[in-house]
Amino acid sequence: QVQLVESGGGLVQAGGSLRLSCAASGSIYRLNEMGWYRQAPGKQRELVASTVSGGPTNYAESVKGRFTISRANAKNSVYLQMNSLKPEDTAVYYCNAQGATMAYTAFSAWGQGTQVTVSS
């Protein structure tokens, strides 16, 4: 009922920048928390950054000062600006959105993932 489409991943050299985008569509009544997670090979999926509508943002310690999460509520979208990228940022990045559908049921949806590769 709720779909997330991500874009913006790719290959970049260390020190470079990328901007990820995620747009939510479908039976959405309200979007509460939106965030970005990542999963590197052989590792568990981890939170990168999250933002609550009208509330605080939250960042993993490893990305603080380098990554910035933002959202455009009118577009049901969330973005992740990634600067000063490091090889250890290499992972598949997933968008997550939580909220309520038009049927007033709670949902937590995931995007399909976008690969970010940082070369040294």
Q: Approximately what portion of the residues adopt beta-strand conformation?
A: over 45%
- Kindly provide the radius of gyration, computed on alpha-carbon positions and rounded to a whole number of angstroms: 14 Å
DSSP, total strands: 11
Tell me the helix content: under 10%
- The low-confidence parts are none
Class by SSE composition: mainly beta
Average pLDDT, all residues: 96
H/E element sequence: EEEEEEEEEEE
Give a quick set of tags describing it.
elongated, 120 residues, seven-stranded mixed sheet, four-stranded antiparallel sheet
Question: In terms of topology, how is this protein built?
Answer:
Blueprint: E1 2-7, E2 10-13, E3 18-26, E4 28-39, E5 46-52, E6 57-59, E7 67-72, E8 77-82, E9 91-101, E10 106-110, E11 114-119
Describe this structure in words.
The structure is a single chain. By secondary structure, the chain is an all-beta fold. It contains no helices and eleven strands. It has strands at residues 2-7, 10-13, 18-26, 28-39, 46-52, 57-59, 67-72, 77-82, 91-101, 106-110, 114-119. Strands 2, 4, 5, 6, 9, 10 and 11 form a seven-stranded mixed β-sheet that branches. A four-stranded antiparallel β-sheet has the order 1-3-8-7, with no helix packed on it. Strand 5 and strand 6 form a beta hairpin. The protein starts with a strand and ends with a strand.
Task: Give a short summary of the structure.
The chain is mainly beta and 120 residues long. 0% of the residues lie in helices and 62% in strands.
